[in-house]
Design a protein that fits this description.
The chain has 16 helices and 14 strands. By secondary structure, the chain is of the alpha/beta class. The chain binds 4'-deoxy-4'-aminopyridoxal-5'-phosphate.
Length: 444
């Protein structure tokens, strides 16, 4: 019998000393309407909770673990580095080696600096853009998430006192910062054009994910990204590609490589740290040199480029750079896609499945067309997803605890993992829809 008894007990202990019992809100499982599981260990494609339940993992550290849990080479790189020292407060060869790998990976970038989170990376990129342009306004896309700095959580929506429950809405940010953000719908060229016509001379930067991974999974239209690039060039604004999730997820380097876009600044995180805490901002030397001493933009960090993370990152990139690595991931993605699509077709499930490489999303709405913007995302059946998440846990599959996160595949997933997932997913959707229909037919 599936039980979360130990998780429940631990969680109630945690709640006494940590708000909501979690150090990052999505872990509270509030969006899937139940108490969360506490994890004991993980290996490869499997993650095990404190009750001993084993799940095939599609969360993978919110997209960090492209190699799955605990790859031997990374574990040994971390262990060897730990024996030599975990932090020196000074530079190391492993840091330079990782920087060289990253700069070589992505033609759009010439220099890079390490921080400890995606949040810090995007925050600093925006600071550079504001300094460089002498302008204040930042264009963001509705439904996006770029970390929890004031600058990136700022939004005109925060000025609306009734909008407390919307995504990314927070108090504690000055009205001035909130007014310095302009919101556009993802993939909406017309609106972006209006924004630039009206405010072009005051826009410091556009910050955008090359694929929207914080809305479930919404693909960008290539002409949309090219249009953003064009608007930025014409109006002297900087283009910041937030590749915290997409960097090294789609191909070796930034997704900008395969999309043929040349952003001014690129932010990385997650995958490049091999499972250790990381963020990085990178870009053209003339912008990056803004953070050199005397060049006006300040940025620092005690744990920035700490050797443990650098060792893990180097080990990860050595594996990712092997010929055929991304072809292998693409094959796994294609396999899952074919399994899910055929199961959906056989069972009459009307949901659209989107995928780029190992990044996938199911649009849980009765519409065979892909979602294009956050407006589309919001038309999904959130209640169905909440129930599905619980059923999938019981069936031994950990999905991200929000419909607004993608499914993350890893190189550790086997065909069997993926086939069983497609079967459980489609089976549970069918039963949940049938149960709902039966409940609706019950006389009141
Ligand atoms: N940018 C994007 C696109 C993200 O998805 C995230 C977090 N998932 C961040 C930035 C912030 O990264 P971190 O959680 O490491 O601060």
């Amino acid at each position: 019998m599936y039980s979360q008894h130990k998780s429940e007990t631990l969680f109630s202990r945690g709640r006494k000393v940590i708000p909501d019992g979690v150090s990052s809100p999505m872990r509270a499982f509030a969006l899937v309407g139940k108490n969360p599981i506490c994890i004991a260990s993980a290996h490869g494609s499997r993650i095990t909770d404190v009750d001993g339940n084993e799940y095939t993992d599609f969360l993978n550290g919110f997209g960090t673990l492209i190699l799955g849990h605990g790859p031997e080479k990374i574990v040994s790189a971390i262990t060897q580095q730990a024996a030599k020292g975990t932090i020196f407060g000074l530079s190391t060869e492993v840091e330079y080696a990782l920087a060289e790998k990253l700069v070589a990976s992505t033609p759009a970038i010439e220099k890079i600096r390490f921080v400890c989170s995606g949040t810090e990376a995007v925050m600093t990129a925006v600071r550079i853009a504001r300094c460089e342009t002498g302008r204040n306004l930042l264009v963001k896309f509705n439904g996006s998430y770029h970390g929890h700095s004031d600058v990136l959580l700022a939004s005109p929506v925060n000025l609306d006192r009734t909008a407390t429950k919307n995504k990314g809405v927070t108090k504690g940010i000055t009205a001035e910062l909130n007014r310095e953000v302009l919101l556009c719908e993802y993939n909406d060229r017309e609106r972006l054009s209006e924004i630039f016509s009206e405010h072009g001379a005051d826009i410091a930067a556009v910050v955008v994910e090359p694929y929207a991974t914080n809305m479930g999974f919404v693909k960008s239209q290539p002409e949309f990204l090219r249009f953003i690039e064009k608007c930025c060039r014409e109006h002297g604004a900087l283009l910041i590609f937030d590749e915290v999730v997409t960097g090294f997820r789609i191909n070796y380097g930034g997704a900008c490589n395969s999309l043929g876009i040349d952003p001014d600044l690129v932010t990385f995180g997650k995958i490049i740290g091999g499972g250790a805490a990381i963020g990085a901002f990178a870009g053209k030397a003339r912008y990056m040199d803004r953070v050199a001493i005397g060049n006006e933009v300040f940025q620092s960090g005690t744990f920035s480029a700490n050797p443990l993370t650098m060792a893990a990152g180097n080990a990860a990139l050595e594996i990712l750079s092997q010929p055929g690595f991304y072809d292998g991931l693409e094959a796994k993605g294609a396999f899952l896609e074919s399994k899910i699509k055929s199961a959906f077709a056989a069972k009459g499930i009307p949901f659209h499945f989107s995928r780029v490489g190992s990044l996938c999303g199911i649009a849980m709405r009765r519409d065979s067309t892909p979602m294009r913007s956050y407006k589309d995302v919001k038309t999904q059946d959130y209640e169905l997803f909440r129930n599905l998440h619980s059923r999938m846990l019981e069936a031994g599959f950990l999905m991200p605890p929000s419909l607004e996160e993608p499914l993350f595949l890893s190189a550790a997933h086997s065909e069997d993992d993926l086939a069983r997932f497609a079967e459980a997913l489609s089976g549970n959707i069918v039963s949940l829809l049938a149960e709902r229909q039966a409940a609706e037919l019950q006389p009141a």
